[in-house]
Specification:
Largest sheet: 14 strands, mixed
Distance between the termini: 42 Å
CATH architecture of the largest domain: Sandwich
Number of helices: 8
Shape: globular
Structural class: alpha+beta
Oligomer: single chain
Number of strands: 19
Helix content: 25-40%
CATH topology of the largest domain: Jelly Rolls
Strand content: 25-35%
Number of domains: 3
Length: about 325
Amino acid sequence: MTQSSACTQAQRDQAIAWLLRLRETPTDPALRQAFTAWLAADPAHPDAYREAEAQWAWMEPFTRQSFAARDAALRYRAARNDVRRRRPAVWAMAATVLLGLGWAVFSPQGWYGWSSTYSAGKGQRLTVTLSDDSHLELNTDTEVRVRYNRNRRHVDLVRGEAFFEVRHDTTRPFSVTAGNLTVRDIGTAFDVYQQPGRVSVAVQEGKVEMAGGQQRRELSAGEQLAYDSDDRFVAAGQTDIAAATAWRRGQLLFRGRPLGEVMAEIGRYHDVVIRLRDPKLAGLRVNGNFRTEQLDNLLNAVATLLPVKIKRLGEREIVVEASDKL
């Protein structure tokens, strides 16, 4: 599971202060020790410091150019005439102005904005709180790219499935893109699942607008819809919101789902390949509630419910075939 941390403004300010202090006295052992302790105090501190360094590197060329904020900073003079004392103060003031300008450009509320990537591996889930207090919940084998700026909030669902609880802000729309579909929040909690050939959307609270090609659809709480690779809106595979979002509770809830789809869903959560020996088995219907992490129990339950048997051909290969009862 990987995550690019969203640092707070206070942490960014601390990181800038450390950057300036370390550049003024880079060989001070006590300062280095205190800095190491600060890094270890919070998992977000290393990320904040890396951001400060990146901003510094980006802004460095501007230190050789003339513009109002820089010139004003460099005109600053300390009260005393001691050059050795004055230079660090002048330099620190200029650096603070330049870095502050960088944060204004690259912060989540800045002109260019802030971006980050979050991912969850097979069998994992990840919950992320964004800078506006919206929440993302990533299902197994999922990756998203988040981009915030002063005008909009946007998420690219690269693969997999995510649940969004959005803090509504009419001045900064929140949207999700998955394949050829864009989902726009209208004060909402909703699920987006990018499957082979289609993207499914299920709304738990509020409303969303789905836009694909020249078509638009509005979904309200309790409704689901899918958009396929032929640029058409089609019925979603699940029958209700509870089934569509059961993964958030570590469960798979099937209500009359075809066995082929069920095996594909199970395969998302485990590092195995599951094959049906006979394509005719794909149409058998499955009903039940299963734990996602218990692969053997899940497969055995399916074999109990249906006239099939499970065969392991190796650690990562499983075959489902017809039993004598079929």
